[in-house]
């Protein structure tokens, strides 16, 4: 699973990059776009950092950082849709993937905490 999730988070980042590249050249779109570009591409970086963790606590901390970035990415996706900057239906697949990645990260955090020696 780790290499699959490594690829999946990288694919998510690439989709975010393509979304940013397709945004209109308006001030609102560019401001929101830069925010989502930063948060959406950070998810995979946090995941990779987690696998270099020296302890369970550090692993959990890095994954929680990824969860924060996913939540932020969802927020920017909502703003892009609700501001009608981009057609909401075009954002649904990205929102769904962010939700699925969130569920996976939550499960990884729970499993790590449950397996941690007392």
From TrEMBL:
Annotated Pfam families: 23S_rRNA_IVP (PF05635)
Q: In terms of domain of life, where is this protein from? A: Bacteria
InterPro entries under this entry? 23S_rRNA-intervening_sequence, 23S_rRNA_IVS_sf
**Record's protein name:** Four helix bundle protein
Tell me what organism the protein belongs to: Halomicronema hongdechloris C2206
Classification of source organism: Bacteria, Bacillati, Cyanobacteriota, Cyanophyceae, Nodosilineales
